[in-house]
Amino acid sequence: MVSNNFTQTLTKAVDQLSDPTSLKGLFHQHQDGNPLPSGKVLEEIIELSRSIIFPGYFGKSKINKHTIRYHIGMAVERLSKLLEDQILAGLCFSCPHSGKGENTPCKMKAREMAFKIIEQLPEMRRILATDVEAAFNGDPAAENMGEIISCYPVIKALTNYRLAHQMHVIGVPLIPRIITEMAHSETGIDIHPAATIGHHFTIDHGTGVVIGATCIIGNNVKLYQGVTLGAKSFPLDENGNPIKGIPRHPILEDDVIVYSNATILGRITIGRGSVIGANIWVTEDLEPKSKVYKKN
Fold it and tell me: Is the full-model pTM beyond 0.70?
């Protein structure tokens, strides 16, 4: 009797979990030969990218000036292949030809996108070098650049972001968001890949920072932990649904500093050289060189 009841319970649960009405929006129908992007492979892509941009700090620790070209060459070749495969999986995720033997255009597109990302690696290194410099100059506790690269979560988060942002710019679907969410899990820093961030950017400590999709951040900007660059409540269409794709996050001009746990909301502009103190909300434009802080 107990066995029969157990079987009936299992059968009922399986029937309910398989009911199409309960799966609406939660089920991705797998297409033969076209798997979803792999989290494990994307982790390898991140590690390879970090090792190429910061050789000797990530990946092969025994690299030297005599072997650097060999190691970078091997890493770039491996990265190119992995990028092509994962981008193809991302393209096939929503492609109407997926699973119909018609994905040759997607394969060609994936290869072109992978090459474009590889082509941008030198520029990514140049920009990330400025981020390392900003973190070093902004922290008196840092003893050298190597400490910044090896230890500071902002560099890991920004490497993921700058890689993901390039993917977003050229139209790679799904994968950019996965890559920045991996950094979010690793560092506590949440940067949407669509955000635009200039050079010499840094985040001190970093935990709890949120940077929304339509943020525009200038050069030489510094944030502290817990800062939110977010949106106000969404405007709704005639059917009551949120209107997406509109600019809704802040613009921070050059040389802005935002201290810990400040919240800046909406499509407002924080003028160049402004300083925003800790634990306050800002929802209106600020003129250049403004200073806003919490008054007792």
Answer: yes
